[in-house]
Amino acid sequence: MRRPIRIATTRQLEYSVRAAGFETYLLPDLPSLDFNRSLEQRLRDGAVYEPFLRKHDIDLVLDYDTSALTFVPSPTRVGEYALTTAALGIPYVAFYIDLITATMAQVKWEHHWHLLENATWIKWITERVQAEELTRMGIPNIINLPMAMADGEFDTGPLPEPDPGPAVAFMGHPASSWFRSSQSVLPGQLFAGLLAAGVRADMPDVPFHKIYYDLYQLGELPQATDPPELRARKALQYFNAKFVYNAYLAIKQRDRWARYLQLKLGDAFELIGDFWQENYGLKHTPKICDQRLLHERMRRVPICLNLLKGGLESGMNLRHLEITAHGGFMLTYPSLDLPHFFEVGKECAVFTNEQELMETIAYYLEHDRERREIAAAGQRRTLSEHLLSHRVVRLVEMLQQGGVLPKGLRAAPPATSTPQLQVTLTQ
């Protein structure tokens, strides 16, 4: 008997998977869904997920930042373990909203890297350059699908009249904590990052991995013929070298603008988030935890500023799409891929230096009608093209084209082999 594809997913993605038109199953609650938790905890969690996946005859598991990555004992090899999904022959996709180096922090690096090298799961990377980087370093099954906004209820009516008070607001935390007095960076970590910063200043479209491996040959790529420990060590050396480069991007694309606007605009600029006083001595208001209030603030402030984190070399962060989805007027620092998402000047506004920032703010505060038209156009673009439901439909199409999922409607998955993870856990 044929039936629609059944997708099991996390709470963050449930609404979007359902909106994409698939039969959707919310994965069971666990004691912790922390994507940093240990391998031992993930093994215990596998005992919860395995019967659930069997019972509902799931065809695909779609995860959020590896929070649902779990293990079960190998049915064929004593002392070894498999991904729960691999043991059941179910495709598993992890949607990374964060960098791969920002997840699984309680897992030893060599184990984390070896898991990433495993071919039994698919890594959905939102930024083009990061997808290139990981593929080049030997990580299999990388899918590059752009960032998207979770589906939900959006107010598509005209923007309300602005609240009295600040005319410009930025909502987010500092991108860098590397400049506290207690933070130390070894001198050997400085050269590669500062060298790459210099190259990027002249050639902004050249990513770090090409500077590191090609232009200046600062390290060796992990090779399939290397022992697993050596591959992990080479990868760690690379990401440690990239550390200072990410700090440079954090200042270039984000943190510098908070200080500049507070100096120039005073109370007309609102900095909403935590750690600004601690890191830079900047006055701020606390993070808005209530999402409804946060999104209403995006609609009411005349200019909603968007700034990029230090981990982004080419792509978009979630805030690009959150601001526009809720109808706010977005003024953003540009990224290489921004023109693929929005038409600048018609669906959002950009700035590239301090003078241009002040001139752009002044212009749109004086041209209220144009500002509202741009906000409405940006919202139409996001809601028509950049929701997670759009990406999930494309993901399933890609999996079908690649033979991971059968095309069209499908019956229960056939029996498959169960590739094993070569990671030994403590029972």
Give an overview in words.
The protein is an alpha/beta fold and 427 residues long. The protein folds into two domains: 6-150 and 388-401, 3-Layer(aba) Sandwich (Rossmann fold), CATH 3.40.50; 168-183 and 249-385, Rossmann fold (3-Layer(aba) Sandwich), CATH 3.40.50. 42% of the residues lie in helices and 11% in strands. Helix 1 (11-19) crosses helix 15 and helix 11 crosses helix 14. Residues 409-427 have low confidence and may be disordered.
Summarize the structure.
The protein has 15 helices and 13 strands. The protein has 427 residues and is an alpha/beta fold.
Structural topology:
Blueprint: E1 6-9, H1 11-19, E2 23-26, H2 39-55, E3 60-64, E4 71-73, E5 81-83, H3 84-88, E6 92-96, H4 109-117, E7 122-125, H5 128-136, E8 142-144, E9 168-171, H6 190-202, H7 208-215, H8 228-265, E10 269-272, H9 276-280, H10 291-300, E11 303-306, H11 318-325, E12 330-332, H12 338-341, E13 349-350, H13 354-366, H14 368-385, H15 388-401
Parallel strand pairs: 1-2, 1-3, 3-6, 6-7, 7-8, 9-10, 9-11, 11-12, 12-13
Antiparallel strand pairs: 4-5
Helix pairs in contact: 1-15, 4-8, 6-8, 11-14
